[in-house]
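Q: What changes when NAP is included in the input?
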Amino acid sequence: MIERLGAPLVEPIFDELAIVGVGLIGSSIARAARRRNAARRIVVADHSVAVLERAKALGLGDVVTDDPARAVRNADCVILCVPVGAYAAVGRVIAPALRPGTIVSDVGSVKSAVISALEAALPGHARLAPAHPVAGTEQSGPDAGFASLFVNRWCILTPPEGADEQAVTKVRAFWEALGSHVEIMGAAHHDLVLAITSHVPHLIAYNIVGTAADLEEVTRSEVIKFSAGGFRDFTRIAASDPTMWRDVFLYNRDAVLEMLGRFSEDLTALQRMIRRGDGDGLFALFTRTRTIRLGIVAEGQETAQPDFGRRAAETDEPVT
Ligand code: NAP
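A: The predicted holo structure follows.
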């Protein structure tokens, strides 16, 4: 599946876009915004010297700085792309530098906690329009980003009560320009939906890979040699960034625990079916789950190709 961005916009959506945190998501936004002419000027900031050097080398911004406050000074839109646990601190740093009316958005994988942190930190004259692009890979850092990351993926906007409609409309237009489909929902509902579609699956992957790593009866080389039996696909997810995922579980605790409770009950039911030799029960469940996968393929969120069909989509465009 080759995913392509559309032609550059005639009129940019933003005059100056500031991106704070220029890792996988921030650098992909910078690349895509540049490619689509979604902003006249792009300023990127990060606290890591190594990341800033790569951002300069990759030409990710017209200005590259280690000072988030300087980055947002002239921006009409700021997108914060830092780990979930860092939004409060970054919000406090940029708050005094924001011009009245600046749109402040984010890409956090957890919405309720990030919105609370930003509402507490930002001045009343900032226009908060939170977002979560449901697109990513198991990699991190500016070299891992690519312009077509968001094409044909969903971006969920979770405007808080009283959010400025014009700001939300502009942020929607921006994500659509980057190739995303946009859906609007409440932050609490987002956190519950993502707990089951993303957070618990990551936890299961981390757990099964950890269990395999600890097994004494099966050697490490056997685990690697025979990984194509299913384990390999879990290792891809379990290779995801430890900082990002630590924060997701710390800041979406309630929704994750709720979904994990349901998961555990269903796992116990499966365990019972195996113990009782209930082949019909197992067959019925596996038939039902197969249709979910077919539905995801039918909606264009995945290809039917083996190996998740991911490679073609991700190597479609050069890294810069
Ligand atoms: P990433 O590749 O690790 O990038 C995050 C960047 O932010 C890093 O360069 C990090 O530098 C920098 N940073 C951290 N704290 C900072 C601070 N206080 N000030 C300035 N820069 C700071 O992570 P990512 O995958 O792009 O994730 C960023 C956000 O996107 C997270 O909120 C995540 O929940 C969300 N998200 C991720 C995905 C995904 O699949 N990865 C998908 C959708 C949304 P250091 O590494 O040096 O600390």
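Observations recorded in class: Residues 20-26, 46-48, 51, 68, 81-84, 86, 89-90, 107-109, 132-133, 136, 140-141, 241, 244 surround NAP (CB under 6 Å).
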